[in-house]
Amino acid sequence: MSIIDVHSFAYGDWIAPSSSARSVASAIDGTEFARAGSDQLQYQDMIDYATSNGGPALRAMTFHDRARMIKALALRLREHRDALYELSYNTGATLSDSQIDIDGGIGTLLVFASKGRREMPDETIYLDGDVEMLSRNGTFLGQHVCTSLQGVAVHINAYNFPVWGMLEKLGPCLLAGVPAIIKPATSTGYVAEAAFKILLESGLLPKGAIQLISGGTGDLLDRLGSQDVVSFTGSATTALSLRSKPNILERAVRFVAEQDSLNASVLGPDATPGTPEFDLFIKESVRELTAKAGQKCTAIRRIMAPKAQVPAVIDALSVALNNIVIGHPANKETQMGALVSNSQRLDILDKVATLSGECERVYGDPDNFTVNGANAEKGAFLPPIILHCEQPDTAQLVHTTEAFGPVSTVMPYDDIEQAIALLNRADGSLVASVITHDVDVARQVVLGSGSFHGRLYFNDRVSMKESTGHGSPLPHMVHGGPGRAGGGEELGGVRGVMHYMQRTAIQGSPDVLTRLGNQWVPGSTTINSDIHPFKKNYNALQIGESIQTDFRTITLEDIEHFARFTGDEFYAHMDEEAAAANPFFPGRVAHGYLLLSFAAGMFVEPAPGPVLANTGLNDLTFQKPVVPGDKIRVQLVVRRKTPRTDDYGEVRWHVSLSNQDDELVATYELLTMNQYG
Ligand code: NAP
């Protein structure tokens, strides 16, 4: 088989490996499989190409445009995923490992596309939080907004998930409107290059939106500035050397780090053998040991069990691991493939030797195990290895040594306080799981250990069928962790997009704030609608367009009729004396829901028209009671418009009810779906 030349893609050109390229071996048999790296790359030209082409083009698109593009990219990758699976076998990955990597990456893009459409505006400015009242009369207000950084994002990825690792960073970055220079790990970069090529050749991305470095990054990081971001995934050692570069520190270049982590799983005190939780714990532990041959940043490195259950845990793990078929990753029956390389295999054995000072090996012999369909001597194979640490309180290395492969250490705890103390010994991790059916244990762990972990995963008989697994970072939830895990936080829905945007506190008049967000702010100018706005289609409606109804008098008969009709005979509406004794009411008052119903009756346009449905009502507050004889009227203002489908969009209306003295009685936000023109 010919050796793959892994190219870079810079300033619009594919650049082949040069004579200084690094050789990449196949995980299956150790033979040379690919070459990557070029000393010809001009890093400043890459930055300039991104910032003068990709950045402006992406920033001209709205969040919804970018979200649609991301979805189309994901679907394009899905069409070509078989070729990516095929290529991945040489990284040691089985088909199910590649599904985590490739389908997981595609799924992540799809979630970002969907969140971009649902949770972000069809705009280029993102409003962060609500308007802040900074003045007594509301003529000077505050609003936080986020705008796209005008530099480039440098994505440095670990070797274990060449596709997911690239896409989980790229999704939020493109949604933010920032171009990326992607640098995959060299040992599996040929899979990333193939996925990159699919993205590029789709023609869906603007020129300069993505570039690829196969090989080293040269002086790229020394050229970055305040508008750039480095998002790094890999070892703590590399993270430290990169984030402490003088240029990164001097110019306060944003640096997001996801690094190694001593994740743990705790068997709850209630989860004794015979309970569904005990079996679940064994299943999750085995999955984390064997999926991707344990080369997952979230894999369980420390298995904690009540002291009395440790022998049963080791027995059950051993029985389950005896059934795991290790072999050629492309074979259908293989459940655990190879490590990425023989050097990774040696590194793990080295770490196991280190740990043996504190632990005893109770399962897995690296010198004696069966590999199906491949040469165990040449390929980077290892069996799952279970260590047992009897004294985790006094041990040090089990809480600090990451063997990035199929290795886990079982350790006992006496009570949940001790389990919490052990969880926290790793000084920060990506995820800890607790398998328990006791909700009080869950609360204790969150209070005692939450601040040490980016994610806490609780599982039991109730959630086990639908749970997503200890080791799966989900695009909806934050991924990252404090301390040793790097202090970074990726994913987490729109939170992940914000790494690539600048938050700015805006202060100004209501009109300035309305114009910035294209969202009407109370106190800003309204436009009197020439015809009833419910007769106008979505496109014709303007932000700030408004109508005011005539007054309607609320009578005692109305209140009593409503009370009997609905059954709401609460004393505040029906009993003068009791109502007057209540500190909120002067006497009998109208039902809040009666006022809402009258309001609808006052502003609704009865004939069929562009308003298709009322889909909700938000933030309803009643400011002042309405007593019999009061008059109310309603003002309706177009607050915000968001396209939803090809046929209609959502209109949010600011609705305010006021009385004859112009005092506010109630306010809320009304949601309607309106046909386009
Ligand atoms: P690594 O050796 O630290 O490499 C990570 C990335 O950094 C690779 O792309 C590597 O490129 C690059 N790199 C290394 N030195 C560099 C330099 N001087 N300048 C610029 N880039 C440089 O880590 P790895 O072996 O690929 O991955 C395994 C580690 O990653 C484990 O410790 C694991 O826990 C961690 N990990 C963490 C997460 C997470 O989300 N927290 C996810 C996956 C993995 P080359 O390959 O070209 O050297």
Verbal overview:
The protein is an alpha/beta fold. Helices cover 32% and strands 24% of the residues. A seven-stranded mixed β-sheet has the order 15-16-17-14-13-18-19, sandwiched between helices. Strands 23, 24, 25, 26, 27, 28 and 29 form a seven-stranded mixed β-sheet that branches. A hairpin with a 6-residue loop joins β4 (22-25) and β5 (32-36). The two termini are 59 Å apart. The model has no long low-confidence stretch (mean pLDDT 96).
Concise synopsis of the structure shown:
The protein has 19 helices and 29 strands.
Tag the structure with descriptive keywords:
32% helix, alpha/beta, 3 domains, 677 residues, binds NADP nicotinamide-adenine-dinucleotide phosphate, seven-stranded mixed beta sheet, Thiol Ester Dehydrase, Chain A, Aldehyde Dehydrogenase, Chain A, domain 2, Aldehyde Dehydrogenase, Chain A, domain 1
